[in-house]
Design a protein that fits this description.
The protein has helices spanning about 10-15, 30-40, 55-65, 210-215, 240-250, and strands spanning about 1-5, 45-55, 70-75, 85-90, 95-105, 115-125, 130-135, 135-140, 150-155, 170, 175, 180-185, 190, 195, 200-205, 235. The protein is globular and about 50 Å long. By secondary structure, it is α+β, with helices and mostly antiparallel strands. It has a four-stranded mixed sheet with strand order 1-2-4-3. It has a three-stranded antiparallel sheet with strand order 7-16-15, with no helix packed on it. It has a three-stranded antiparallel sheet with strand order 8-12-9, with no helix packed on it. A hairpin with a 5-residue loop joins strand 10 and strand 11. Helix content is about 20%, strand content about 30%.
Length: about 250
């Protein structure tokens, strides 16, 4: 699951964007209850959370997630920012091998001249699990980024109902758009060996809205959706996990 939960300070700093909302539904404690209900309902093995305000993380978000059996890692944004990102995972499903925070700020590079950060976690699956509900996602800039990673998006970015673009947020221009993604490394079939290579097989994903749907729920946030972003959720199968189990069980 990947979810930008909307930092309360950013909400206050940009309150003009939320004139369509009544004041009670913008209060942090109201929003936190809805956000935690959303997380519990989807019950993901891995959560990637953005715009997590540091003080709220330490006093409320982290304790709430730990009470649900999650291990939490956090990285605050650089500069004078008060929010950051968190990657959390179910301790019953994974063990942590390593965690590496990343700071992207580069003052003379237009794509990177902002206080963005990331977290890279290496996790080891616990062997009884064969599929994961995941949020290996992040927001990206639409400028060109080149890499050699074999990644594909879990989403088609077009609604199957109407053929219209899927949306994940309504941006500062008030135009609905997609800026949140879940990327993964897919399996590929080796026909010579009649086997699948390392990677993940996408089994299902949580449906997203298009702009027409967004109007029917009174925009974002609203009384039930307490962020200005929608959560993304994908379920993956790990084809080589069974082979790994059989190998490790011999020793």
């Amino acid at each position: 699951m990947s979810y930008n939960i909307l930092s309360q300070k950013l909400l206050h700093d940009n309150v003009h964007l939320y004139k369509h909302c009544s004041l009670p539904i913008l209060k942090w404690n109201y929003r936190l209850r809805n956000i935690m209900k959303e997380i519990q309902r989807h019950n993901a093995d891995i959560l990637c959370l953005q715009e997590v305000q540091e003080d709220h993380y330490e006093t409320q978000v982290k304790p709430s997630l730990e009470s649900l059996g999650y291990h939490c890692e956090y990285k605050k944004r650089t500069g004078n920012k008060v929010d950051g990102c968190a990657v959390v995972f179910k301790q019953a499903s994974f063990s942590l091998v390593s965690c590496h925070p990343v700071e992207y700020f580069k003052p003379d590079i237009p794509l990177l001249d902002r206080d963005n950060v990331g977290l890279v976690l290496l996790l080891k699956p616990k062997l009884e699990k064969g599929s994961i509900r995941s949020g290996e996602g992040s927001r990206i800039n639409r400028s060109c980024i080149e890499h050699s990673l074999n990644l594909t998006s879990a989403y088609s970015h077009h609604s199957s109902k109407r053929g219209r673009p899927e949306i994940t947020t309504r941006g500062h221009s008030r135009r609905a758009m997609t800026v949140d993604y879940i990327f993964y490394s897919p399996t590929s079939r080796d026909t010579s060996l009649n086997s699948e290579s390392d990677g993940l097989q996408l089994l299902a994903r949580l449906a997203l809205f298009d702009e027409i749907d967004l109007h029917t729920i009174s925009g974002l946030p609203n009384a039930n959706n307490s962020s200005d972003h929608l959560p993304l959720l994908a379920c993956f199968r790990m084809p080589n996990l069974q082979a790994s189990c059989e190998y490790e069980n011999r020793f």
